[in-house]
Design a protein that fits this description.
Length: 120
């Protein structure tokens, strides 16, 4: 008898979460290790999103303002932006303005951003 093969994260309903920082460096001490991953997994579970991949990019106010200007034709610094993808298995990207973290709880920003994907 052959050993059982492990299930992939997607088949278990888990989401692969990739984290990136503008410029490649973590620039805020407000986020601890697995705290963000734990929050994302809870919100994803609560919203019923299953088996997708997600990129979360932490960036500065000028960076996110440039994204808002280029892609949304808006001239402001949002706390977060979402960019849904139409690829199978890939939910999209969430850009979080790390300068907004002292003003908005990360759980609130992530829940708000993930709800945008449900509308797509």
């Amino acid at each position: 008898m052959s050993p059982a093969r492990p299930s992939s994260p997607a088949s278990l309903g888990l989401m692969k979460i990739n984290f990136f920082w503008e410029g490649g460096e973590k620039k805020t001490p407000l986020l601890k290790g697995g705290e963000v991953r734990k929050i994302v997994r809870k919100v994803v579970r609560d919203l019923g999103i299953r088996g997708k991949e997600l990129n979360i990019i932490f960036c500065s106010s000028p960076y996110i303002k440039d994204l808002a200007r280029r892609y949304l034709q808006k001239d402001y610094e949002p706390a977060c932006l979402t960019f849904p993808f139409r690829e199978k298995g890939f939910l999209g990207e969430i850009y979080i303005n790390y300068h907004s973290l002292p003003h908005f709880p990360i759980a609130h920003l992530l829940e708000h951003a993930l709800k945008h994907f449900l509308r797509e």
